[in-house]
Amino acid sequence: MILKAPDFNSAQLAAAPDASFAPAPADGVLPDKFFSTTNLPTWVKVDGQWRMPAEPRMDSAIVRERDGGLWTREGRKVKRGDSVAVGSAEDGSHGIYVHPMDYDDAGDETEFKFMTSEVSREKPIDYSLMAQILIEERARGGYPVWVTGPALVHSRARADMVWFIENGFVGALLAGNAVAVHDIEASIYGTTLGMTQAGVASSGGHGLHMRAINQVRNAGSISAAVKAGIVTNGIMHALVTDDVPFVLTGSIRDDGPLPEVITDTIASQDAMRRHTVRATMAILVATALHAIATGNMLPAFVTEEDGSLRELATICVDSSEFVVSKLKDRGTHQAFGVVTNAQDFMHILRLYVEREITARATTSK
Amino acid sequence: MILKAPDFNSAQLAAAPDASFAPAPADGVLPDKFFSTTNLPTWVKVDGQWRMPAEPRMDSAIVRERDGGLWTREGRKVKRGDSVAVGSAEDGSHGIYVHPMDYDDAGDETEFKFMTSEVSREKPIDYSLMAQILIEERARGGYPVWVTGPALVHSRARADMVWFIENGFVGALLAGNAVAVHDIEASIYGTTLGMTQAGVASSGGHGLHMRAINQVRNAGSISAAVKAGIVTNGIMHALVTDDVPFVLTGSIRDDGPLPEVITDTIASQDAMRRHTVRATMAILVATALHAIATGNMLPAFVTEEDGSLRELATICVDSSEFVVSKLKDRGTHQAFGVVTNAQDFMHILRLYVEREITARATTSK
Amino acid sequence: MILKAPDFNSAQLAAAPDASFAPAPADGVLPDKFFSTTNLPTWVKVDGQWRMPAEPRMDSAIVRERDGGLWTREGRKVKRGDSVAVGSAEDGSHGIYVHPMDYDDAGDETEFKFMTSEVSREKPIDYSLMAQILIEERARGGYPVWVTGPALVHSRARADMVWFIENGFVGALLAGNAVAVHDIEASIYGTTLGMTQAGVASSGGHGLHMRAINQVRNAGSISAAVKAGIVTNGIMHALVTDDVPFVLTGSIRDDGPLPEVITDTIASQDAMRRHTVRATMAILVATALHAIATGNMLPAFVTEEDGSLRELATICVDSSEFVVSKLKDRGTHQAFGVVTNAQDFMHILRLYVEREITARATTSK
Amino acid sequence: MILKAPDFNSAQLAAAPDASFAPAPADGVLPDKFFSTTNLPTWVKVDGQWRMPAEPRMDSAIVRERDGGLWTREGRKVKRGDSVAVGSAEDGSHGIYVHPMDYDDAGDETEFKFMTSEVSREKPIDYSLMAQILIEERARGGYPVWVTGPALVHSRARADMVWFIENGFVGALLAGNAVAVHDIEASIYGTTLGMTQAGVASSGGHGLHMRAINQVRNAGSISAAVKAGIVTNGIMHALVTDDVPFVLTGSIRDDGPLPEVITDTIASQDAMRRHTVRATMAILVATALHAIATGNMLPAFVTEEDGSLRELATICVDSSEFVVSKLKDRGTHQAFGVVTNAQDFMHILRLYVEREITARATTSK
Question: Does the pLDDT of residue D323 top 80, yes or no?
């Protein structure tokens, strides 16, 4: 790809002053306001001429040698007294011009920056902001839709999910058969897929989820199993007890399935959509299938009563960047990605919500 | 691969009783103690004959039809009154024999289980156990070596790392130039690689880590920069202030580098090993290079003063299973893998350590 | 975890000879048969005494100093003439004993090895073996079941999949709505989800898969759309034309769906199982949902006509180790994991199959 | 985030015509040119009024009911004769206006699209284009710099890498100690880290890489070991034999190291940069450390002899999106990401280069 050459006759560049230089105060130390290079084509105005320093690279300084030569040089190689370009403007206005190579959709130049990726495990997670959004949704009677995968149960974030249900933060839960199966296996047998809470595969454990399913089928429904005292704790127990609506949708991976599971996928989508049309927020945790299915039917915005619009806050939590990226690639651009373990996410989010509630209670006194 | 046929003339199998059957109590509901199938070759003893049920699959029941036919059938298809095999023994002792296909190193048969993988994001993380180990190490004067990558700083687990340093849980810190650079950039400019604490790439931010390095080089050393009040908080500040030893080892990715960085990799390894020979525990967070380097030189065990040996607790935290698996593939078999985000790990670990300290203080009164 | 001490009074260890030593031929060079250390507790018999070398680590040598001291030392630090332990036996039989710390299920000791993980992108992929299995399956009239995700179509392995269908390597294809939708979008519009074959998102492209679905719904079925000349190439076209059975199962993510899609997940499972009970091989490419669903209903073995059993070759291809690991964690232990891109897998597998066919044709002349 | 309301008084929207509608030809079938919805706020002009259809979601149709109500509805629910909005323009010019919610750096609106992520395993890999670039670089005497990690050797892409070296496609190879160690272990012992070519961990294999290193140290250098017939094939053998420059840089993970390894990381960077300043192309395969180090010192452009500039083609191959994303986050924005297995990449790239050479030879006759 051939790059467009800069127009040095443009008013802006033609009128630019010469670049400024300052001496290095010591070997391997640059003057305070040194210009820090990028990997883009760069010109420096010296004696009214735009010149390109040799050996370009990023994270370095520009040195003018006694013979007039301009070099891109690592700070550690600069000697005391070397003449080093100073300034931070990259648009030529102070005699240094960095030529953009990337252009956005509209054809405008983009600035050289680090850390511009949309989703990365290297980015901070703002639990405080998420906690505030959840509390505000609850305060204004919003309808946060939670969509979760079985890792939430495998990894014992069950207790935290129960807390969110019991404290009014869950408008509806959309999930699959497996979430309910593992949750009920945990309630009856203390294991998930036969794995103990310490993460150890137990002998004979491979049949326990089938026994859990069979008990619920025998009871007739999850609600009945809760009422009969077969299921005494966990997510499904909390949903039934607190009368929070849930939709369990079927998939080809399902064992059983449990009685409440809607096995027809079209009927499942209709059942999910009855909640997504009311959603004022979405929290998608550790599921690709259900997250993308929900994203497909979720508007990117909420219409307020006065007709004004706001973005529908959509949080997508997964162990890898891939699920969030896939969700965006299928049009759910408003999704905010959190790359972490589901158990840890639930634990810290709850902690921040609890703290924020306490802080607000204190403040309001 | 041809499978060895079972020896039905063996004493154990020859003497086995017929399998037991019980009627299904309702359509789609199995009798209480139904045998839950695996995907392995399975024989059922009926009228003294070992027979293989048709259409084998896992997570199903074995049904004997009126014509004597034996079928593997999903529970949902079983009709009230169908004759279903019951029992859980898989060794033939109750008339059902499951033939192993996998053999361990020693040639012994292995049992069919779920969740046998060594490292998985689907396994629970036992923070309580890790907190106890850390507190016990501190109590007995152990030497926990922490090895960290820059994600710890990028993602603002800085404050938590400082807490562990200040509270005596860190014997030594082994890291690279980047950890110190980002930490110092955060102290001076409030950013890491120009990214704000909210995760936004800032304009002109790409040069900030270079300016941070330059300030420390100008001061002469990290210690000097701390003493001069240039670096006023963070990990390096805590290490210097609390006199906890650290080793910063060089890599080809380094900008600068900072003055304390050992640029020769052989000298670096020697400096690291002066700490690994003393290590009584290792915590490896968000780094492949440094974790594997440390694993290479770390014994898998600790020799107690009385000469007895115990496993050297080694915790490896990463966003993906791959780093832990790679560490094990290079011989650090004792590593316990935690698949999560570094920021979240630090936050919850600290929380559990604080709780455990409080609990012990209360108990000991 | 306290380790069991070795029993030096056991017949084997008591009778062991002293270890052998040889001089280093030059600085930093070890004698030919040097003993290469592990990170496990290690004892060396010197003058009839079992002694533990100081500063244990892996990948090093054991040096006996003039004062009798035994040290674990990196080869680069050894000086010419230093006395270095030689041998490779680790069971004490030549005077060096490495104490195992890991035990398998049966309680037997395991040997120290590198690269023992079950699935890793760092392991070679044996395309030659897979090609042979496929050709042999075809030769004996086997029934290879292919299970694929939409990445196969996104990434233009379509042509390769068509080749396998047309050349008799596909017994049945099990997939979801999305595979057929993208494949048909590619046939009609030349895009997948609006992305061109060069991987560029096209303007207005977000609606093309919906238009493709609408055309097929209008035609009444995929078969009808093929016969009407609406769908003129690709996977679905080949399946219909070559009369290879396929099952399209529904999910909550489905747009449309296409007419042949079985929307009830229980009916879907039944339809899939009609093929898995006949399967003599399984190839699972780039799908978690369908791979695990198939794994759930697939026996781990094939029963030959003479009643003998062999392992059912199961190949699982995915971009990450996670899917294979998850499949095994749900009991499909026989799965052989291939960590690669679906497009590249299909391309190379076809190449190897073509080569093998040519080679056999030549040989058989 | 409150969204800016559209300005319906703007010339463009005020002048827009009413939207067009057409009847659905059958139940569940939409009219040919149906408007396919997005998840963004959408208004439809009916009787001169801009109105928002109820229950917005993507991938659906807009239906006007007899009572005048406007609904967003899945195609499968539409009944024969229903009045469905048609058109594809989203800017209001045909009576349907989709309100953007995302804005690029310059503040311009962005269009709703699928598949806009920068790097994804779901995107096609254009081997043909890469092959052409390599052949053109060779033709014009370019200087392609290859940077590789040890997975290239582990996974037996060795033969393909040798082919590229022997056929003049490699200007220089930048790598670490491990690449050379595994390559030489493979030449001498037929294993890598003790793993056989079939991917099996061999007994006693853990010491083989140390024995390989020791033999080269004994010979004095890799070149000497090649000349002495100790190393008889592979990457290092090809580089030495064909006189292609290589730089082996040290890291704290290194065993040995081999004699040519530059252990000082600053000297290593200088040695690498002597090649990057000449680079006209970069191919980074299966290495995070070396890829990012090279990216740091590589200009994003090449200056032609006539002073014009072109982008420096930079290909980054890794098993996961993360490394490419990290490389870009550190400023190497020009990197083109290929998400696949290193072995497969090398194999197919070579195949395409061979084909292209043959095609050009034929054409030029």
Answer: yes
pLDDT in the model for residue B13: 95
pLDDT in tens, D171-217: 999 999 999 999 999 999 998 887 777 777 777 788 999 999 999 99
> Between chains, do B296 and D330 touch, taking CB under 8 Å as contact?
no
DSSP label of D269: H
D351 close to A (CB below 8 A): no
In the numeric block, which tokens belong to residue B361?
């203080």
Torsion angle of alpha carbons C325, C328, C329, C331, nearest 10°? 170
Backbone phi and psi for residue B181, each to the nearest 5 degrees, phi listed first: -65, -50
> By CB neighbour count within 10 A (0-12 exposed, 13-18 middle, 19+ buried), where does B1 fall?
exposed
Write down the pTM of the prediction: 0.91
C302 and C309 Cβ atoms separated by less than 8 Å:
yes
B359: burial class by Cβ within 10 Å (0-12, 13-18, 19+)?
A: exposed
Segment B258-292, tens digit of pLDDT: 999 999 999 999 999 999 999 999 999 999 999 99
Q: How far apart are CA D60 and CA D74, in angstroms?
A: 5
User: Which residues have a Cβ under 8 Å from the Cβ of A49 and sit 6 or more positions away?
Assistant: none
What are the φ/ψ torsions at residue B324 (nearest 5 degrees)? -65, -40
Whole-Å CA distances, A135 to A148, A169, A352, D166: 20, 8, 10, 65
Q: Which of A206, A322, A329 sits opposite C331 (nearest CB)?
A: A206
Tallying the residues shown for chain A, one arrives at: 365
Task: Pick the residue from chain D with its C-alpha nearest to C347.
Answer: D348
What are C46-83's pLDDT values in tens digits?
Answer: 999 999 999 999 999 999 999 999 999 999 999 999 99
pLDDT band, residue A365 (cuts 50/70/90): low
d(CA A300, CA D1): 11
3-class DSSP assignment, residue A22: strand
Query: CA B173, B176, B177: angle at the middle one, nearest 5?
Result: 120
**C54: DSSP letter:** B
CB B171, CB B279: distance < 8 Å:
yes
Q: Which residues are within 8 A (CB) of C233 and not within 5 positions of it... i.e. 6 or more apart?
A: C162, C187
Q: CA C89, CA B231: separation in Å to the nearest integer? A: 54
- Tokens 């639990």 locate to A127
The beta strand positions in chain C, using DSSP E, are 20-23, 42-46, 49-51, 61-64, 70-73, 83-86, 96-98, 144-148, 172-176, 246-249, 281-285, 301-303, 309-311, 313-318, 335-339
Could you tell me the CA-to-CA distances from B14 to B37, B46, B111, B169, B350 in Å, in that order? 22, 13, 21, 60, 58
Mean pLDDT value across chain A: 91
Q: Which residues of A touch C272 (CB under 8 A)?
A: 252
Chains B and D form CB pairs within 8 A to the count of 70
Residue A329: closest C-alpha in chain C: C193
Strands B61-64 and B70-73, sheet pairing: antiparallel
Instruction: Give contacts of C121 with chain B, Cβ < 8 Å.
Output: 322
Q: Which of A318, A306, A173, A301 is nearest to A236 (CA)?
A: A173
CA distance A262 to B199: 40
Cis, bond preceding C257 (omega within 30 deg of 0): yes
Residues A227 and A200: beta-carbon distance below 8 Å: no
Strands (E), chain A: 20-23, 42-46, 49-51, 61-64, 70-73, 83-86, 96-98, 144-148, 172-176, 246-249, 281-285, 301-303, 309-311, 313-318, 335-339
Per-residue pLDDT at D106: 47
Q: Is the pLDDT of residue C106 over 50?
A: no
On the question of pLDDT at C89 being above 60, the answer is: yes
> Per-residue pLDDT averaged across D224-246, rounded?
98
Q: Identify the CA nearest to B125 among candidates B361, B347, B358.
A: B347
